[in-house]
């Protein structure tokens, strides 16, 4: 029987390529990209004080662009290429059509698809780090920080954990979509960088209200729905495992959000939109390393844990631990990503199902992937504890890596440009840093101000409006 003409292989659709997998992988990559732009751009820009809306959104916007250029220039092959040392690949470009049109190292699609898919994961990691530095980091310092941290930290974690030649990958670490590589890295690096950059102006630390809560929810919604591509695409196939990964992602996230909301309501008397968003994020982060290799009931348990433990560290422990109070982390990246990502990695080592690991990894030695719960159940207790040990080793490696590399990078950048904005820039915000205002008509809720850098209109534009109305617009 002959295949339909649209399924026949040709030069553009070689025999090894699965068109369905390729289409899903490109779609998943686009969904992850949308999490950053516009998702986190909107979330950051609306979650901060009005005077920092442009700066916060722009930090994310710039990081996304810079990482993509670095990725094809050297980052992809440092993360997934030929081994240079046990924790890093050889730097090389990913620009030649012969390389890009060949089969990817995993899956049934071209390397070009893999390069794009992995690039948006790398990009969102830097965007997440930005959340810990909003409202005071010198933008010129951020311009330098992004390529340096990407090159000397992200590529090391990615190669070690995700590349088949990486040392932790060979040991058998389970990190389906980046609980360690992305979220733990971003949380620790962001917290470390925030320590070196220093805090926001005291006035901003005392009062930092979001400028648009409805828009903030829109950004959060893009982040949540985009996670279908984040975890569903990490299986590298349009398969049963990808379907389970997507379902587990949303079940865990909803459970985490509701858990956080209940805790806020019980202890503080009112449900909080900000709290619900934090609970959403911790659920998304916690399920990331486990999404396709745990049962759906385990995803619910992980949601309860991810909605309660980071809640406790943020709402209770943060006020008691001196270091947590000292470091200014305006988006709580440490709690929502470092704590939740670490929890996810540990819980993955406990709940990972052997059969699901076999379906995901499809390797001859799949039996080494075994959650402790199933090791205890099946009489393979030592194998279960070994898996937990590997998960903890990966967690420790990522923490130490990011503390050391981030500190060195911040020290180096500080020799070139100041890490922190000047007092005048901290006082005024966007208009001084970028010469632009996000809200031209209602600047700081006081009066209309025409920026000297970004003039919005002349009074002649209001020739059709009565003088009394113009006076009301300009009135303090």
TrEMBL record:
Its Gene Ontology cellular component terms are: plasma membrane
Which GO molecular function entries does the Swiss-Prot or TrEMBL record give? Answer: ammonium channel activity
Q: How does it sit in the membrane?
A: Multi-pass membrane protein
Q: What is its main location?
A: membrane
Recorded hits in InterPro entries, A to Z, give: Ammonium/urea_transptr (IPR029020), Ammonium_transpt (IPR001905), NH4_transpt_AmtB-like_dom (IPR024041), RhesusRHD (IPR002229)
- Entry's localization field: Cell membrane
**Record flagged with keyword 4Fe-4S:** no
UniProt domain Ammonium transporter AmtB-like: residue ranges: 23-439
Q: Which UniProt keywords apply?
A: Ammonia transport, Membrane, Transmembrane, Transmembrane helix, Transport
| Pfam families listed in its UniProt record | Ammonium_transp
The portions of this protein that span the membrane are: 23-45, 52-74, 115-134, 141-162, 174-198, 210-230, 236-263, 284-312, 332-353, 392-417
**GO biological process terms, semicolon-separated:** ammonium transmembrane transport
What PANTHER family does this protein map onto?
AMMONIUM TRANSPORTER 2 MEMBER 4 (PTHR43029:SF28), AMMONIUM TRANSPORTER MEP2 (PTHR43029)
Sequence similarity: Belongs to the ammonia transporter channel (TC 1.A.11.2) family.
What protein name is recorded for this chain? Ammonium transporter
